[in-house]
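Aim 2 progress update. The chain analyzed this quarter is reproduced below.
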Amino acid sequence: MTIARLRKAVFPVGGLGTRFLPATKALPKEMLPVVDRPLIQYAVDEAREAGIEQMIFVTGRGKSAIEDHFDFAYELETTLKAKGKSLDLLHQTRLAPGAVAYVRQQEPMGLGHAVWCARDIVGDEPFAVLLADDFMVGKPGCLKQMVDAYNRVGGNVICAQEVAEDQTDKYGVITPGNRDGALTEVRGLVEKPPQGTAPSNLAVIGRYILQPEVMRVLEAHETGAGGEVQLTDAMARMIGDQPFHGLTFAGTRYDCGDKAGYIQANIATALAREDIGPAVRHFVEGMPLD
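Predicted structure tokens:
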């Protein structure tokens, strides 16, 4: 079996971020910081670690801050140089010419539609999809774990996580087949099944490696849960025609689309830092419990 190399990743960043208003009125939710780096920077760094060569951002209105973040900042760099300060932190944000592309999602029609908007840039290649809201902490990173699995089994690989039974109605859920360690054969996918009807407690989390054929399915713009074009539904249509596996991520996920999850990600990241961890730990340990 010949497995095509994974070179491209799609970042759907066109959402309105309404759950974080008013902070996201003028600031894209993907630019919300976890300590001192925006969420989208963590996702891009995860993709880089996994060997991704081209980052494709599917943007919307009011998202120019994302483009600016990954661009050269001549005035800022000139000022820092004049003051003798290091530019290392800024260099981490740069994406080389040809390594980044932007495409516009003109109306919010769902994740599946956002992915479909990148079809011309993806072309006839496998590609990854990363949702910056899902803040993944692990060594190696989540996408690197998935790429390693993809290089063994090919086809489509999606990130899976066990969730509580009373939470399955909030996710796409896997109908599992044979299991081989962290890899589970995917025999079906159900988007947000009603309570008590989920085929398992393996939820689909915001990392995907997909074959280009999914774009042909998405182009029909069939709507599903919430009246949106659901990526889960398109993937379900491909099961049986191509290899399909879920990889249970070895690490920790923080749902940064949720306010509590976002704060938890900030605290956990801060505590893990050598420079600020001790001060944050001292503060947290001294907080009253009531």
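The CA atoms of residues 133 and 256 lie 5 Å apart. Residues 259-272 form the longest helix (14 residues). These observations will guide the mutagenesis experiments scheduled for the next reporting period.
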